[in-house]
Amino acid sequence: MNITYLLEKSMQDHDHLCPRQILGVRIGLAGMQALGFEEPPTKKQLLVISETDGCFVDGVIAATDCTVGHRTLRVEDYGKVAVTFVDTKSGRAIRVAPQRDVRERACAFIAEEPRHYFAQMQAYQVMPEEEMLSIQEVVLNTPVEQIASRAGVRVNCDMCGEEIMNEREIIREGLTLCRACADGGYYQSTLSCTFKINLLPLTEQDSKRDEFF
Ligand SMILES: [Zn+2]
Ligand SMILES: [Zn+2]
Q: 13 C-alpha vs ligand 1 centroid, how far in Å?
């Protein structure tokens, strides 16, 4: 197997090649193959969910052509080197992760290289898939249609008024809400009070809602 071209592609946005990018390429190829794709399929038939960001994902992107921009790549940041590959047509999902002792296996595979980093760099390019990777059929907890959602659908949040795209709204007690207003989100306004209510648990929110409408 010659993955040089894919490694060069992965390196394009970096000034280096590293073991994680190589793992990303290998995992990307293995996931596609497990779903029966010889090469990246068209028409968004492949959705990849990476469990970390960083160099590793660039390898996955190089191998699969899935990107955030095309809405074919999601990051569920568990801080783990692993990817689930979903065939959006059939709903079949395969999770691929490195074998738990992949580093030790890589060093044993290139025993003549005493520097672990370089042994991994070499080994990850040539080790047989079954020695490197664990490949498992999985079932998604959220239907793939819901993860992919329909692009271009737009509504406005009843609380903050901002537009919500791609069916990411939450309907709660008859209100259409963005995630930030419904569940607190990842930020809060420095302009104090107006949206403070959004950060309270639902029960308190309910009892105080009248004050704000
Ligand atoms: Zn790197
Ligand atoms: Zn909102």
A: 10
Give this prediction's pTM: 0.85
Ligand with smallest separation from the Cα of 183: 2
Going from the Cα of 71 to the center of ligand 2, the distance in angstroms, rounded, reads: 22
Q: For residue range 110-138, list pLDDT tens digits in order.
A: 999 999 999 999 999 999 999 999 999 99
Is there a contact between 140 and 90 (Cβ–Cβ < 8 Å)?
Answer: no
Place of tokens 């029966």: 36
Residue 206, Ramachandran bin (φ over 0: left; ψ between -120 and 50: alpha; else beta): alpha
| Residue 191 Cα distances to 81, 125, 164, 205, angstroms | 39, 52, 22, 18
How does pLDDT run across 183-200, given as a tens digit for each residue?
999 988 887 555 545 555
